[in-house]
Amino acid sequence: MSIRSACRRSLILFMLLMVPVPLLAAPFLSIASPSADGIFVLRGEQMAGVAGLDITIGYDRNTLSSPQVTMGSLVGGMLNSSNPSNPIRLAIVGSEGIAVASGVIATITFERLGDSAGVITSMTASLIDDKGNKLRIAPTAINNPQNPTHGEPSAEAPPVGDAKEEDEPLVIDVTSAPSREAPVVLGGSVTLPQEEVEPAEPKLAPQEAERQEAEGQEIAEFQPQRREPAPVEPREPEPKAAPQAVTQPVQLPSVLARFREFKGERTLANLTSLFKAVGERPLLQIPAIAIADGTSTVTLVIAMETGDRPPVFAFKAARYVSVSRSDEGEWEVEVRPEPGVVDASITMLYHGLSQEFPLVVAPAVRLPAAPGSAASEAAFRNFLATGADLNGDGRMDYLDDYIFTANFLAQSEEPAQQKE
């Protein structure tokens, strides 16, 4: 080995030792168009353990249009949604972290305008792990194809933080049907506000214009002079309220999990008490117990501060119906549980954080009732004594207790609601 080669290797080793270890291990995102044909590939490096991604990509309107997003193998099996606006927004979330270190996150196919190969103007990203913790990320890299006529981004291309499109919540809708390999994706819509244009005044013939000008001068001669209003002292602008802090995610154990972990005596009082909320919860479910019959819907009212950007909603074992925001700033998400499910949830990605909301849902079971009343306590005691396989899995366990108790409480509310 020559002295020059040995010195070179020593220098490289020294430079690597000087780089902080966290920087080397931080996730890294890059986007490039290898063939300069309007197809841009978004790649991720050091991505092992990443469970949620919120990415925005801005592009030059004068060189690219009509983006189409295809998710890559790196995020295969994860829930995803995208808004093909400008900037493009990608939202991807999974119950577990990515297993491999690197790969393709998404491929974005544009329609090229003119001879340009296309220009990506900006890219930002926010990542979280499977516990909802925000991850440190290395600076993103944009590798635009070389083009002699469009070497710099157009001045008309809006930056990510200044986009004119109106942000709306992204929606990811997925069912747990075993026959469906890929998730069903419903992208949130983005609308471009209409610009208000004043109608142009019609042009007049020269004679008509002279006549109106003369009449205007005559009217002005007889117009009494107006007194100028007294000057108004300028008022100091009222101080703006400080932005509220983003609500941190909390662990919300499901009612189903309480039944699974319950070791006490199976009594009416004990089992019904498992449905009572414990501590402060940033949500309200309406109705409190949803029946999974395939037609009924349930609304979740979320009282959380989610930051400036709209959140991303992902659904497990439930179909998306609608999402809106109340005057008080609460998110109201309506879903339709899949028929027969006992485990359904809504996950909200916001400000680089993740919050899961388990739903209280059970299959429909019509219980014996006393004449003119709801499900009777006698029917409950009979179930506790004899048991029943309500979900058809061949055994009697906590799931049957959960299903029976949920229907008992739901049907006990029916007469009261009918009287109201």
UniProtKB/TrEMBL annotation:
<dbReference type="GO" id="GO:0030246">
    <property type="term" value="F:carbohydrate binding"/>
</dbReference>
<keyword id="KW-0732">Signal</keyword>
<feature type="signal peptide">
    <location>
        <begin position="1"/>
        <end position="25"/>
    </location>
</feature>
<protein>
    <recommendedName>
        <fullName>Cohesin domain-containing protein</fullName>
    </recommendedName>
</protein>
<feature type="region of interest" description="Disordered">
    <location>
        <begin position="138"/>
        <end position="246"/>
    </location>
</feature>
<feature type="domain" description="Cohesin">
    <location>
        <begin position="46"/>
        <end position="143"/>
    </location>
</feature>
<dbReference type="GO" id="GO:0000272">
    <property type="term" value="P:polysaccharide catabolic process"/>
</dbReference>
<feature type="compositionally biased region" description="Basic and acidic residues">
    <location>
        <begin position="224"/>
        <end position="239"/>
    </location>
</feature>
<dbReference type="InterPro" id="IPR008965">
    <property type="entry name" value="CBM2/CBM3_carb-bd_dom_sf"/>
</dbReference>
<dbReference type="InterPro" id="IPR002102">
    <property type="entry name" value="Cohesin_dom"/>
</dbReference>
<dbReference type="Pfam" id="PF00963">
    <property type="entry name" value="Cohesin"/>
</dbReference>
